[in-house]
Amino acid sequence: MTTYNASRRDLAKVIAFMGAAAATPALAQPRAAAPGNIDAAVKAAHAQYKSLNEGKNADYIPALAQVPSHYFGIGLVTPTGASSFVGDIEPKFSIQSISKVFTLALVFQESGQDLVENSIGVDATGQVFNSIVAVEQFRGKEMNPLVNPGAIATTGMVKGSSADEVWRKILGIHSDFAGRQLDVDEVVYKSEADTNQRNRAIGQLMSAYERFPGDPAQATDLYTRQCAIAVNAKDLSIMAGTLANGGRNPVTRKQVIDPRHVPGLLAVMATAGLYDDSGKWLFRTGLPAKSGVGGGLIAVSPGKFGLGTFAPPLDAAGNSVRGQRAIASISNTLGGNPYSVQPV
Ligand code: GLU
After folding, report:
1. How far, in Å, from the CA of 89 to the mean position of ligand 1?
2. Lowest mean pLDDT among 32-41, 169-178, 191-200, 213-222
């Protein structure tokens, strides 16, 4: 039999160690970055990439081709409301696919996460964001809510007895995330509504597979309208900051969605937020993120910060070139990768 012959000094050491462990916040618990550091990191990334002249505006929605390509704005907001805004943070642009995250938040809040997981799925399709083949292949299942078939179905799941009522809720949740009343860019809406035959076909097909209730034409129209919500880089950073802060807006302090829905939202962003480059992006940064073809990009470091950028030229995968570079650089500087922990 072995006996434990601890001396008083050994025992004191053990107790001191246990006390220190209890007093030290767990390493996995994220800490918000210091305000001085964030400003320096955001300014440095803006200066480094402002002249980067790669990529091209989206033009399959004609109005997007007209947006000045040189715009470059970056915003960062922490859970405590500390912020840094640099460059073209005021010009407005259409939110496009980034809206998919916030309409999904509304559906999670209204109907719970199981509805989405069981009806359209949460995996990556392995196909482009507006793939009809993917719908056929999986009969409308295994569609991530952040690619068009899943997103149109998600919009079709928002409860309401009229299109107006559904729309007010969709615009309402976007506004709550941004902390101000948002509105639609009618020029972009019209430009996309005139050319969105493909999305209409996707909506009909998802409806044929009974993936959402109600009228597919209405769901596709409201989806098109939500994509045309006008935001600026500052709005996007506050929206991302709200996700980084467990669903509470760090500026208005309003609890926009239940904190228990945030991990699910971040998970689908990690899976499919940057189209076919989602894996590459996650590998490089570890950050759940979502891009839009209007040139916006959001990224979330849970508990640390939310980032929103605007720079219209896109790479071949459809993601903002300068936005990706800036976010990766800022996050590296601030230690934003949630998978990166100091060994104990
Ligand atoms: N409204 C656009 C579409 O459905 C959004 C695409 C995007 O930003 O990825 O084609």
Report:
1. 22
2. 32-41
Helix 99-111 vs helix 163-178: crossing angle, to nearest 10: 110
**Cβ of residue 293 lying under 6 Å from some atom of ligand 1:** yes
Q: pTM score, two decimals? A: 0.89
Total residue count of the chain as it appears in this document: 344
325, with CB counted inside 10 A (0-12, 13-18, 19+), is middle
The contacts of residue 222 (CB under 8 Å, 6+ apart) are 155, 158, 163, 166, 167, 170
pLDDT (0 to 100) of residue 131 = 86
Per the CB < 8 A criterion, the answer to whether 139 and 122 are in contact is no
- Does residue 199's CB lie within 6 angstroms of at least one atom of ligand 1? yes
The secondary structure of 82-125 as a DSSP string is -EEEEES-S--EE-GGGHHHHHHHHHHHHH-HHHHHHHT-SS--
Please say if the pLDDT value at position 9 is more than 80: no
The pLDDT of residue 18 is above 60: no
**CA-CA distance, 35 to 80, in Å (whole number)?**
10
Q: What phi and psi values does residue 246 have, to the nearest 5 degrees?
A: 60, 30
Q: Is the CB of 155 under 6 A from ligand 1?
A: no
> How does DSSP classify residue 232?
-
Per-residue pLDDT tens for 251-286?
Answer: 999 999 999 999 999 999 999 999 999 999 999 999
Instruction: Write down the CATH superfamily of domain 32-334.
Output: DD-peptidase/beta-lactamase superfamily (3.40.710.10)
Report the residue among 129, 187, 196, 236 best suited for mutation to probe ligand 1: largest number of ligand atoms under 8 A from its CB: 129
- Distance (Å) from CA 12 to ligand 1 centroid: 62
Decide whether any atom of ligand 1 lies within 6 Å of the 185 Cβ: no
Q: Is 227 in the pocket of ligand 1 (CB under 6 A)?
A: yes
pLDDT band at residue 111 using 50, 70 and 90 as cut-offs: very high
Cα atoms in the 13 Å half-sphere on the side-chain side of 311 = 29
Q: Which residue has the tokens 């409860």?
A: 159
What's the CA gap between 90 and 83, in Å, rounded? 15
